[in-house]
Amino acid sequence: MSQAPAPITVPHHVAIIMDGNGRWAKSRGLPRIEGHRRGVETVRTTTFAARDLGVKMLTLYAFSVENWKRPQDEVGGLMSLLEYYLQKELDTFIRDRVRLRTIGRTHELPAGVQKVLRTTIEATAHFTDCTLVLALNYGSRTEVVDAARAYAAAVAAGKEKLNDNSYASFSRYLSTADLPDPDLVIRTSGETRISNFLLLQAAYAEFVFTPTLWPDFTKADLASAIAEYNRRERRFGLTSEQLKSSAATK
Ligand code: FPP
Q1: Which of 239, 234, 248, 246 is nearest to 9 (CA)?
Q2: Number of the ligand 1 atom closest to the C-alpha atom of 39
Q3: 51-103 pLDDT per residue, tens
Q4: CATH number for domain 13-139+182-232, candidates 3.40.50.300, 3.40.1180.10, 3.30.70.100, 3.20.20.80
Q5: Ligand 1: residue whose CA is nearest its atom 10
Q6: Is this prediction's pTM over 0.85?
Q7: Statement: residue 190 has pLDDT above 60
Q8: Pocket of ligand 1 from Cβ distances under 6 Å
Q9: Domain residues of the chain, as ranges?
Q10: From the CA of 36, how far away is ligand 1's center (Å)?
Q11: Taking every pair of C-alpha atoms in the chain, what is the biggest distance, in angstroms?
Q12: CA atoms of 193 and 190, how far apart (whole Å)
């Protein structure tokens, strides 16, 4: 008798480094911004694909602190696309009960982007089924510096004790304070770097690298990354035997 296949474990939180928009455009003789435009479509399809597959939280690395160094017209184009995307997507977020959150120094983004972010975040704050987190003007090192500064100020104000210096207490000052750590981090386009993304939070995440360029990324690619995640053994520092015996006693 053949055994039933083991049920798939869907990672609660998937984070994606969306890469390859520029190469996608270049290979078609198009300007880079066209790659980003197609990338926005993939943001939309992936958000709903994640929800359909049972992922509760999706974090997308949309603009890093280093991305400001790109040509000015590309940065301006990305900001316009972001504003347009948020305006266009609000009704869909509400219809499909998607909560929007951000991480990163969003107060440094253009005023128009900040305004539409505020509107969308407020309008979707009460949804609990599915959360889309956009990492905007985000970089882990900057985040850690900001958190260390806030933590030091809290110690000086007597709100934190210096000898209670666990990661749990420090992590309350990160921009991800109320978000669970990612279980699965995916990077598209064949690059195998982490690029200053969720360095602390991804400490125990599984990584999947796919050669697919971000504009070509589909629900099937996401499902395949989840299948790969299911082939991994997450040990969190324990031995394989310890994990098996704790699973057997459950
Ligand atoms: C990397 O591709 C992608 C980015 C730097 C930005 C990602 C942005 C989007 C998908 C569109 C805007 C996002 C939202 C949420 C509206 P790359 O330009 O580095 O590609 P390359 O390595 O092939 O040049």
Answers
A1: 234
A2: 10
A3: 999 999 999 999 999 999 999 999 999 999 999 999 999 999 999 999 999 99
A4: 3.40.1180.10
A5: 39
A6: yes
A7: yes
A8: 18-23, 36, 39-40, 43, 60, 62, 67, 78, 81-82, 85, 134, 189, 214
A9: 13-139+182-232
A10: 5
A11: 67
A12: 9
